[in-house]
């Protein structure tokens, strides 16, 4: 994932505190706009408009291999094309657009192209994986970040469920050995276990996001394949986060250093990944204990994140993960509060963070918070808002794990 954001989240708990004070919530501004009821047809219109802005201002076209820019306008430090994580979010946006009622089919070709382009980021060798930046011949390559690989595979599962093409299921399965390398087997460390953030000898943290997102991947693969190895991995990885990183119900600290210290930063998507994992394990095993865990985390996390400007101040892309995981649970255990929270955030952000001239969303350097007219628009953030709007447009949104919508 973009290293400028997560580097700030993985230094020390003290520095992480500075992240929040450096960009105070609504400093000198009024409270967030009170949300208004929005019909699902309007969410579809907003999703379509936001997607068109993404494609107009950030998509580079087929003559540039179907890649995206990191920002518009391009910043001095930007690479030629986007890093893997923003590209993944653009792919996820296309998947959600193809699920729009009525005209979703118009976006199927876009989604198919995104998954072809994904493979430009993959590098083989002794330690294969999707690299953070394009390897040769299109770029200089990058490290294999395990969170990146987990979310790529989750998108591949989404595409499998949407199209029925088992090639995407196989691709997602091929990522499991990659993320499994991240497991730290050193029993001498405080709270042994957990998964490394990056495939590098210099890595010294075990990250909640990697471990929880990988657990979610394994749990969803178990639903589709019933391979016991996936169930065992999902339970092990979920168990470590629950035992070693839980601050309170539904809230999980960011990472644990190899020296035993923890970075106490809280992110919505870590809450979401644990909700999504428990929901998938409930669907896959039928055990009510997993449903109880999912509901407990969902309700407690929403009570926390729903206070004041906490959702507003989180990175938009983290909220996209979180809200989708809440609606995944809603599909098996309905609770109108989940969609209401998502709708309220989406409507407020549409009204306060959108550049009406371009349709692009602009945030603080943290990728969340108040509108900054001087900030460049980012593929990461624009794609997140497309996902949120498109998801809200789906009145009959199903949870994951129910098999592909089209026959293989």
From TrEMBL:
Protein name from the UniProt record: Hydrolase
Signal peptide extent: 1-27
InterPro entries: 6-hairpin_glycosidase_sf, Glyco_hydro_76, MUG_Protein, O_gly_hydro
Hydrolase listed as a keyword: yes
Keyword Hydrolase: yes
Keywords: Hydrolase, Signal
Record-linked SUPFAM superfamilies: Six-hairpin glycosidases
Record GO biological process: carbohydrate metabolic process
